[in-house]
Amino acid sequence: MVLNPVISKLSGKLVVLASGSPRRLEILRNVGLRFEVVPSWFKETLDKGLFKAPHEYAVETAKQKALEVARRMPFKHLKTPDIVIGADTIVAVDGMILEKPVDKDDAYRMLSSLSGKEHSVFTGVAVVLCHEKENEEVDYQLFDFHEETKVKFADLSEDMLWEYINSGEPMDKAGGYGIQALGGMLVEYVHGDFLNVVGFPLNHFCKQLDLIYNCNTNSAGQESTPSFSPVHKVKRKGSKSEVGEHSSKLVNSLSKHTDNGESDVRDVEKTLPLASSRGQTIEEESEPKGEDLQRIIDLMDGFKASKALFTASKLCVFDLLHNSPGLDAAAVAQEIKASVKGTECLLEACVSLGLLKSKENECHKSVYENTGLAVRFLRSDAPYSLHGYIQHCNNTIWPLFSHLESAVQEGTHQHEKAFGKKSKDVFQDNYYNSRERKLRFMNAMHSIARVTGTDVATAFDLSSYKTACDLGGCTGAMAYEFTKAHPGLSVTVFDLPAVVEMSEHFHPPHKDSRVSFVAGDFFNDELPKADLYILARILHDWPDDKVHLLLSKIASTCTPGSAVLIAETMLDGLTPYSALQSLNMLVQTEGSERTEDKYVAMLSKHGFGNTRVVHTKNFLDAFIAIKM
Ligand code: SAM
Question: Residue 400 falls within a domain, yes or no?
Fold first, then answer.
C-alpha cells in the first residue's frame, strides 16, 4: 500500500475531524492531511453495559461523534463536509472500560488498576462520507473499524503514581496516561500500533481509505463517487424542509465486523437503526421536537441563568439561607428587602439551576436551603467563595457584554459605552478614586485565584526553583497556593502600590513568611530577582507590544534555567470556554487570549524554550517556558 496516494485522494475535499484531541490532530497533520476541526457535541454517555465487547463501545461512540458533526455542519456551518472522521480511544482492563479520569482520585484509581499488568487500548474510528445532491439533500455513508494495541505497565510505586498524577498529564487522556509524553516512562512494552495508543490508528485508517476509494475506482482507474447507501438525508438551511426527511431505509454501516475485529468494506445494509445516546433511533424528524431545540434554547437562556445567579448572589440569598436554612419566600423577601412575588420567582429559578433545594413544610409552603454547590462556592465567606468574582461579572462584565455587538464591529473594548468613561479613567476610579471599588476588584481577583491556584501551582514540578515572583500577584492568593504546594519556594508578590497597600485585608489567618509583597509598576520599575516568574491572568490584559516589553524585562533578569509560568486560558479554537473568554477580553481590554503557539513564539523571541502546557480544566491553563 502506498500512503500518499491514499491521503491525496482527499485533497480538494472538505475533510472534517470530529475530535478536538490535539494528539489526533498532530498525527493526521503530520501525514499532510488537510482538514478542519469541528469537535463533536455528542456526549460520551453510551451505556457501556449494552456492549458485548469494549471495542464495540469505542466504535459506536466514534460513529455517533462523526454523525453528529456531519448532521450539524450543513445547518450550523452552512456547508456540507465531504468526509467526517470520528474516533474514540478507550483503555480496557479486567473487563472494565477506562475513559478520561474526572479528577485526581479517578486518575489514581485507573492508573493503579493498570500497574504491573497488560491492558488493551482500543480506538474506534468512523468515517462518514457526505454526498450533497442537487435538491440539497445530503446522503451519508458510514464506514467504521477499530484497532487494538496491547500495552504493559511496569509496577508503579505510590510515589511514582502521585508524581505522575500531579504532573497534570493524566487528566485529558483515556486510561489516565499519555504514552507520547511522561506516561511513556510507565510502559514496559507495546504490542501493536503505537499511534493507536496515542489516539489514532493511522496505518489502519490509510488501509481503510484505500479500500473505500479503490472500491470506488472505475475500470478506467478514475475515481468515481462512492456508491451510496444512505444513513439518512438532510436538507440544508433555507430549503423547504430544514430538518430533512426520512430515508426509506436506515443503514448504519457499510462495514461488517469479522471475528478478528477487521472490517470488511462491503455494501452491507443493516436493518437495525443506530442507537443514539438516549437509546432512541437516530432519524431526521419532519417536525422539530423540543429536545432537538434544547441546545439552542439553552444558549438563548444562558443569560437569564447568569443574571439569576448574579442577582441571588448580590441580594445575599445564599448567605441568608446558610445562616437560616428553611425560610419560605415571604421570609426571604423580608430579609432581602424585596417583593414576595419577585423573591419567589428568583428562589424557584435558583432551585431549577441546582443552586437551592426546596421542600414543603408542615403548612404546605415551599421552604428553601442551599445545595452543596452553593455552600461551597456561593456563600460570601466560604473558603473557596466565588462571590467576589460573581459580583465582578455582574457589575463589570455584564454591562460590557451588553455592548458586544459594538465590540465586534469596532474590534475594541466598550468602557465608554458601558460606563461613560475612557478605560484609563475606569482604571483610575478602580485603583485610586474609590477604596470600595478597589476592594471589590481585589476581591474578584482573589476569589478566582483561590479556586484555580492549586491546579496552577501543581501543574509542573517546580522543586528546582527556590524563589518566585508573582507579577501582578494582587492579593497574594496565588502566591500562597504556590508556597503551600512547594515547601522550598518563597514568593514575592509584585503589584501596583495601590493594590499592595490593601493586600493585608486578604492575608490568610496564618501568614506564611515565605510570601512577601513589593510595590511597583512592572513596565517601569526594576523587577525583583527570582528564578521563576509567575504571570497569572496578566498577559491577556495587554496588546502584543506591551507583552514583549514585559517579557524582555523578565528575560533580562533571568539566568539560564529560570522559568516563566503563565496561567491563562489558552485559545484552542475548539472549546466554547476559551472562545467565550476571548470575547470577554475583547469587550474589556486591549489585550486578548492567545494560543499556545502564539505564547511559544512570543517567548522564544526572548530566549525562552522547552515549553509545556497543562490544561488544568479549572478556568486557567498553565504554561511554562525555560530560559535557554
Ligand atoms: N495575578 C492575579 C490573579 O491571577 O488573580 C491578578 C490578575 S489581575 C487580572 C491583574 C493584576 O495586575 C492586578 O492585580 C493589577 O493590579 C496588576 N497590574 C496591572 N498593571 C500593573 C503594573 N503596571 N504593574 C504591576 N501590577 C500591575
Answer: no
Contact (CB, 8 A) for 589 and 541: yes
Say if 266 falls within a structural domain. Answer: no
Q: CATH no. for residue 239?
A: 3.90.950.10
What is the pTM (predicted TM-score) of this model? 0.60
Q: Whose CA is nearest to atom 14 of ligand 1?
A: 474
Asked if the structure places residue 493 within a domain, the reply is: yes
CA-to-CA distance for 272 and 249, rounded, in angstroms? 10
Residue 12: inside a domain: yes
Check the CA dihedral 177-180-182-185 and report its sign: positive
Domain count along the chain: 3
**Main-chain dihedrals φ then ψ at residue 107, nearest 5 degrees:** -60, -40
Kindly report, residue by residue over 36-50, the tens digit of the pLDDT: 888 888 877 788 888
Our mutation pick for probing the ligand 1 site, out of 499, 518, 546, counting the most ligand atoms within 8 A of Cβ, is: 499
Residue 613: pLDDT over 50: yes
What span, in angstroms and rounded, lies between the C-alpha atoms of 380 and 417?
30
Q: What is the CATH number of the domain that holds 519?
A: 3.40.50.150
Ligand 1 centre to CA of 585 (Å) is: 15
pLDDT value of position 434: 82
What value, to the nearest 5°, has the Cα angle with vertex 212 and ends 211 and 218?
90
Taking the centre of ligand 1 as the mean of its atom positions, its distance from the CA of residue 474, in whole angstroms, is 6
58 lies in which domain range?
7-257
- Tell me, yes or no, whether 249 and 307 share the same domain: no
Q: What confidence score (pLDDT) does residue 80 get? A: 81
